[in-house]
Design goal:
This protein has 445 residues and is an alpha/beta fold. The protein has 15 helices and eight strands. An eight-stranded mixed sheet has the order 3-4-2-5-1-6-7-8, sandwiched between helices. This is Cell morphology protein.
């Protein structure tokens, strides 16, 4: 049946003919029959077995065929009957296995994945990686420690370090106490101390080392001040091994003695490295009788005198000197700054076990300028404050500084010097004390 027959039948149904039919051109393209699209071949992956398909019976119309010439009215009155389709029987797994076996026996291979599909999958993976790179997933940040937590951690570390240091100090004190204090030194020991710098303590110590003599005795000058300045005043060259030189640790103190002015024997502090200075400070701090042991090894006699120049202030060297000294001389000046340190010095000297019970404490006012009224007033204040403990006043004399500049002994200059006279008088007072104490010791025996 074509389109012309359809039009004739339609006109004849209404009692007309197709001769009066006029066809207008239309853009609609009437296709006689649309071709059915080709069935897609199912793609099965090697790892996934293909699904078994069950063929459905086609829907079959009645056996009577409809002729092309039949009219529309005839089609309306002739019902079309469809046969009832029976449900397809379920395919058992055993049948599928059997079919697979037959396929294997016939050599039929499963369809492989096309290369185009693999390429598409690779591109998808690359696109996914690019997307992740463009929009990275933000990682959860680690918890940040707060300042209070850091302070607590640092406090724990500091406490642990302090506890360890305290344990080491207690152990050192225990060992030192177990060794005990050496026998009291037979020599007379003078400690030159001061809490204020620039008062002329080292100058007075060098002057006493040159002028103080006992019968059949020697004078030793021991420098415990890291400034290492005592050797300048006694005419000893610089750079000789000192008390803390580890390079000469095999040498005893007696082997390190240097000859100075007026036959004074000097044991300098020495030019020490930071490690040597630290090691010396640790020895002094851990052993309260360190200096007493060193002097005991020198085998000093009753006629010997040791002048110790200590560092300014409350230092380990001051503690060591107070432990062995039988005469402590506090050097001060007639000014307000030195006066303000007197209370602190008195507390240090009065501390328990600070110095031997038999030791004397005396004060010397140095660099006194009698031409200034204020200096005279301050001297009067010091006399009232110190009383009999003030044993000497040494006037200010430029001759001492000039002798140091030229490397000469300040006590051997031929010119008259007021400071030289004051130093000699101080040495005589100390000599008298030592002679008296030695005589009392002989009588006690």
């Amino acid at each position: 049946m074509n389109r012309t027959d359809d039009i004739s039948n339609l006109f004849s149904r209404f009692g007309a003919s197709a001769d009066s039919y006029h066809e207008f051109e239309s853009q609609v393209d009437y296709k006689e029959k649309q071709p059915a699209p080709p069935a897609e071949t199912p793609v099965s992956h090697p790892e996934i077995p293909p699904k078994s398909t069950v063929e459905m019976a086609p829907v079959v119309a009645d056996d009577e065929a409809v002729e092309v010439g039949q009219s529309v009215s005839q089609l309306e009155h002739e019902p079309v009957s469809l046969e009832r389709l029976d449900p397809a029987p379920a395919v058992e797994p055993s049948s599928v296995s059997a079919a697979s076996g037959v396929r294997d026996s016939l050599g039929i291979q499963q369809a492989s994945v096309p290369a185009a599909i693999v390429e598409v999958e690779d591109k998808a993976v690359i696109a996914d990686a690019s997307l992740k790179a463009a929009h990275p997933i933000e990682e959860q940040p680690w918890p940040v420690a707060t300042p209070s937590q850091l302070r607590n951690l640092l406090a724990e570390v500091v406490q642990a370090r302090q506890a360890h240091a305290q344990a080491l100090a207690d152990e050192s004190l225990h060992h030192a106490a177990a060794r005990g204090r050496p026998v009291t030194c037979k020599a007379h020991i003078v400690a030159m101390v001061s809490l204020k710098g620039g008062v002329g303590k080292t100058t007075l110590g060098a002057g006493l080392a040159s002028s103080l003599r006992l019968e059949k005795g020697r004078v030793f000058a021991l420098d415990l001040d890291p400034q290492n300045a005592l050797h300048y005043h006694l005419g000893v060259e610089q750079g000789v091994p000192g008390i803390g030189s580890l390079s000469s640790e095999l040498l005893t103190w007696s082997d390190r003695l240097q000859h100075g002015f007026d036959d004074a024997l000097l044991l300098p502090y020495g030019v020490l490295s930071e490690d040597e200075r630290h090691a010396l400070a640790v020895e002094m701090s851990e052993d309260p009788h360190w200096l007493a042991r060193q002097l005991d090894r020198m085998h000093l006699g009753e006629g010997d005198v040791v002048i110790i120049d200590t560092a300014t202030g409350a230092t380990p060297s001051l503690d060591q000197a107070l432990d062995v000294a039988d005469e402590v001389i506090v050097v001060t000046t007639a000014d307000a700054a030195s006066f303000n340190t007197l209370d602190i010095m008195e507390r240090l000297l009065a501390a328990s076990h600070a110095r031997a019970a038999y030791s004397n404490c005396s004060y010397v006012v140095n660099q006194f300028d009698a031409s200034r009224e204020f200096s005279r007033d301050m001297l009067e204040v010091l006399k009232r404050r110190l009383g009999e403990q003030l044993i000497a006043v040494v006037v200010k004399d430029n001759a001492l500084g000039e002798a140091l500049a030229y490397g000469r002994n300040p006590l051997s200059v031929p010119e008259s010097s007021a400071a030289r006279e004051d130093l000699v008088q101080l040495a005589e007072k100390l000599q008298a004390r030592f002679e008296t104490s030695r005589a009392q010791g002989v009588e006690a025996q």
